[in-house]
Amino acid sequence: MLWYKFWLESRLRFLLSLAGLVLFAAFIVFITGKDSVRPMPAKDYHLQLFVAHQYLVGIWMLSVVLLGMGGILRERASGISQFTLALPVDRRRLVGIRFGVYVLESVALAVAPWIAVLLVTHLMGEPWAFRDACFFDSLLIGGGMAFVRLATLVASLIEGEYTAPAVTFGIILIIQVIANAVSWLKPLNFWRLEGGFNYIDTQTLLIVRPFPWSEILLSLLFLLLTLAVSIKAIERREF
Amino acid sequence: MTEMFPAIETRDLSKVYGSLEAVRNLSFCVERNQITAFLGQNGAGKSTTIKCLLGMLRPSTGDASILGKNTRDRAASRVARQKIAYVAENKPLYGYMTVEQMLRFTGAFYQDWCPEMATRLVAEFQLPVDKKIKRLSKGMRTKLALLLAFARKPELLILDEPTEGLDPVGVEQFLQMVVARAAEGITVFFSSHQISEVERIADHVCILDKGRLKVDSPLDYLRQSFRRMDLVFPDFCSEQDFRIPGVQRIESNGRQMSVFVNKNSDMVIERAKYLNATSVEVVPLGLREIFLETVRGS
């Protein structure tokens, strides 16, 4: 039933984000391709998909951070944590299940707009670009989990209804600025990893490098570590 | 086996927030099958004690057990919460759920949930099942919070300011439900500022003042032992003559004197007669006056 609670809690934000992302993705590929000859030259088609992906990365990141609002600290700020904590449930389970719902919703927010992209481009006369879609979507999910991690961690440390997402956005901004300015901190630039800049040929816009399994695996491992830290933080906290 | 343990037991329980000692060396027992009232002014430490009992706060020192389970042990505390129905102060509920969703959600966590009882109480309280909780009035929210506790058959019912926001009809319904539940063998532990309600239903009273336990007695015993003696003397009489054990407070106005006692009332009467009192009137105190005397005395 905790799944149900967390779903009800985030459902409005999730559905609005989902609708926004899907409509925006469809709109972008429609606008960027409406005046082209059919089928487009391969380079133009790849450019269209790459540009659409860049927009998706930005909006997905915003949606995911807003979706990360919630949890027991936010309940404390709004005064309802006493009901939740009186239930015969471990805090570990509370944090874990909320995290599970959050990750699933984040994945759905990454997959659905790419399905819209494929459908719209196909309806416009382009071939199915499953390989590009899977590659970019996997980058978005794998690399983007950095934002899920950050939002989860901040939500388990900082109280306040809207403070946690505001702080998360602030941290993301600072990390991006620093990672752009300092060369040896480039790996911290998750935007580049998610956006796929490191994996395409800038001339042909084709995917030329293999999928970054090790980076993505590391990102997912850090996700589990973040979950463990969040659970510890909530277990130690007094309400 | 569980019947052998008191429902609640604390031993030298203290909770400190920085320099504020919210609860100090609290030791008391709540026996099973009784209605125990937990009284105190705002900030006396009642809610802090309840949160310690439910495992939400860790005691700074001392120990507490609830239904025989130590509250410091997380797993044991979770097992105990399965048998406890708790209504928190301010009635926190999920505003984004409808009444029906809230009932379904809560019912799923407890084996002692009675769907028939829930349906009956929804009708009795006239709760709109399709309405979102955030759209309910304060009174309706209080009724829903009480329903979630009363639609179960727990071993222990903990209520923190349960009648806050209820109209007189709702208060009456609530009091009858509490008495009925106690008659079924459910232990009730409740904090309230509504002393007239406490006086009607409580078997036992604990009064907390500034984190310390001041009174821990059966209500009947309190009523018998707390007295106000209105004395009139032919001449001026000194308060010093009545400084004897059990005297809580003395109000003196020339030849007239009011002596508040919680024991040894016979000794006060003898002393008054010895000092040639022309009038000795013994007035039994209600719980409200007992409470005021207790917190005023400190």
Summarize this structure as a short list of keywords or feature phrases.
heterodimer; A: 239 residues; mainly alpha; 9 helices; B: 298 residues; alpha/beta; 6-stranded mixed beta sheet; 10 helices; 14 strands; elongated
Largest sheet of chain A: none
Count of DSSP E strands of chain B? 14
Biggest interface, chains and residues, is: A-B, 21 and 29 residues
Instruction: Assign a percent range to the helix content of chain B.
Output: 25-40%
The number of distinct helices of chain A, counting runs of at least 4 residues, comes to 9
Helix content of chain A: over 70%
Class by SSE composition of chain B: alpha/beta
Write the element-wise H/E pattern of chain A from the N-terminal end onward: HHHHHHHHH
**Mind telling me the C-alpha Rg of chain A?**
19 Å
Q: What proportion of the residues of chain A form beta strands (DSSP E)?
A: under 5%
Uncertain residue ranges of chain A: none
Which structural category do the helix and sheet elements of chain A fall into?
A: mainly alpha
- What's the end-to-end separation of chain A, in Å? 22 Å
User: In sequence order, what are the helices and strands of chain B, one letter per element?
Assistant: EEEHEEHEHHHEHEHEEHEEEHEH
Please state how the strands of the largest beta sheet of chain B are arranged side by side. 6-7-8-3-9-10
Shape of chain B: elongated
What does this protein structure show overall?
The complex is a heterodimer of chains A (239) and B (298). Chain A has 239 residues and is an all-alpha fold. Chain A is built from 9 helices and no strands. Chain A is globular, with a radius of gyration of 19 Å. The longest helix of chain B has 16 residues. With 298 residues, chain B is of the alpha/beta class. The two termini of chain B are 40 Å apart. The radius of gyration of chain B is 22 Å and the shape is elongated. Chains A and B meet through helix 1 and helix 4 of A and helix 2 and helix 3 of B.
